Amino acid sequence: MRRVVMLVDNAVEGDSRVQKAARSAADAGWDVTLIGCAHVDAERRWRLGDAEVRVLPLAAARATPPSAVSGPRGVSGLRTRLVARGGLPLRAARLARRPVEHAQVRYWRARLRDGAWRRLEPGLWDYERVAGPVVDELRPDLIHAHDFRMLGVAARAVDRARAAGRDTKLVWDAHEWLPGARPRRDNARWLPAHLGYVREYVGAADAVVTVSDTLADLLVRDHALPERPTVILNAPVTATPEPTAPSEPTAPEPADLPAPDLRERCGLPPDTPLLVYSGAMAAQRGVDTVVEALPLLPGVHLALVVADPDAAYVRQVVARAARHQVGDRVHVLPYVPHRQLVAFLAAADIGLIPLHHWPNHEIALITKFFEYAHARLPIVVSDVRTMADTVRASGQGEVFRARDAADLARAVRAVLADPVRYRAAYEGPDSPLPGWTWEAQAERLDALYRCLLTPTR
Q: Which segments carry the region annotation Disordered (predicted)?
């Protein structure tokens, strides 16, 4: 059995694409180990179907030279105090530091070109230090690097394997367009450092996969790829796992149990109009616009299905709802396992995608788009290009102007007035749903693996 190691820079549990890829590859007969790197107290292990999952702890201390971008002794303590205090002093300090950060970028790019990340974002070495030895020990035939941070880790592991005489292959899975990404850290070094990091290692990939046709075209343009990336959509799992006959009785996995009832968790009867937003919460994702629209939609409720109902931004949204006197119509619920999610969402009336205009939002067909579609929910989406064009073409929902609460309310009213018309887009021979399944995507990924690992004469 050929061994596949997947790498990701998170704790796995909230990343449905990574989970689906690992489990479906194992179902197809690959020996899969999924390695996550995250800020956890100790290594965590579990099984995802036939795939093994290992989440490795990222230590607080960096294994990088102290001469990497840093300040004089005592600066880190001042930074800690400013972060703890927050507010205007922190914003002023960050603004004052911008000229220094831009100067650092110019200096190190002039000296090291794409390798400037070693000085500008030295924390990338933490992933190498933690995951690299584990990958080497597993001796994989193929490494599947999810997203941009793990590309360098995978490329260096492939170099070491080939130096030892093993022809290990590398697949890079580009989850987003990095030039259009919102920096994960509030400094001017983050984006140029990571762009250089990707440029340094992208040539090591034997194949590239990504999430949409638009992003595939951008990757070809940006990196002069010799072949167009294989598009693996963020589509949901639709098949029910086949029952197994264990030698000893075992408790069912939570994902294989029936989905909970969304309306029951919200305390709502079947005839109450219910909007649902499922996924990560951040200002640029537009949930504030939905809250501002609720006073224009009497009797309509909103369910927010999120990773952490107690997160600071979620609490801010709930407080905003209370100020608009619609707090009793907003229901915050935790995630359910991704294999239960489509059935869970199906009890709603409309699926919401209220994104603000941001480069990556314009080119993506995001996971929740496909989850709403398989739940047969009409979709109300902001006018971000790719999803808005898809909804207009399919007739599966309505489009509104991003950040415009009144226009969002208009779109919701239109759908609630004739939901059957919008749901009809999912039925009949022209339904897009058969191609929007993870099972269809898994076949493409399996074919790519086999092509890469089939000897050529």
A: 237-256
